[in-house]
Amino acid sequence: DLLIDQVEFADVVLISKLDLVSAAAGGAVEATVRRLNPRARVRPLRRGEIAVTEVIGTGLFDHDAASSVAGWDDEVIGGHTPETEEYGISSMAYRADRPFHPQRLLEALADVRAVLRSKGFCWIASRPDLVGVWSQAGPNLTIEPAAYWSQVDGAPQQELVFIGVRLDAERMRALLDRALLTDDEVAEGPAAWVEYPDRLPAWNVPAHRH
To answer: Is 57 left (phi over 0), alpha (psi -120 to 50) or beta?
Structure first.
């Protein structure tokens, strides 16, 4: 998690020891870094050689841009085909206007493959009033409360972005779609949803005052 955070926040990323790996391996690493942070200046190194001016006093740092992690928003808003796909590194956006069933979401996650990073906002049926912040790096996934849906612009929804190696976008969407509530479950409403079995980590959230 810390490594991914550092890559996404950086304005300059140095990739060293490329002389010790194959061109394909080095290209895949560089492609992954560029996909994680399209805003950063990425500098592959040979034998650690880098001009001091590339890393000192660059004037590149922009706190607002770094905090927004440019590139994630681009994928969610419109999507694109990055050059990184040459190395099998691709991304996909997932959106839905109904909540996840907590148990079926866990079952779907058990079948997820080849995802390096995912991030966004989610809606869990058993916690219908709360915006969930989804953040996954490698094998580690956290879903934490961010706010009440009533306090944010727009209707409750799923809005997630996935980056993976040879990512099967169609299979990924099918997995997540199966975790969504059915039409009959949606019709039952939040009073029924909160009774669903929920083995996701508990959220300690103060009582909401209207």
So the answer is: left
Q: In the chain, what percentage of residues exceed pLDDT 70?
A: 86
CA 117 to chain centre: 5
State how far the Cα of 104 lies from the Cα of 177, in Å rounded to an integer: 10
CA angle 31/164/26 to nearest 5° reads 30
Residue 55 identity: V
Q: What is the pLDDT of residues 42-98, one digit of tens each?
A: 998 877 888 887 777 776 666 666 555 445 556 555 555 566 777 888 889 999 999
Radius of gyration of the chain (CA): 20
β-bridge pairing 12-15 and 41-44 = parallel
To the nearest 10°, report the CA torsion of 23, 29, 35, 41. Answer: -80
Give the pLDDT confidence of 5-45 residue by residue, as tens digits: 888 888 889 999 888 899 999 999 999 998 888 888 899 88
DSSP characters over 23-39: HHHHHHHHHHHHHH-TT
The DSSP call for residue 201 is P
Q: Give the separation between CA 61 and CA 45, rounded to whole angstroms.
A: 21
CB 30, CB 15: distance < 8 Å: yes
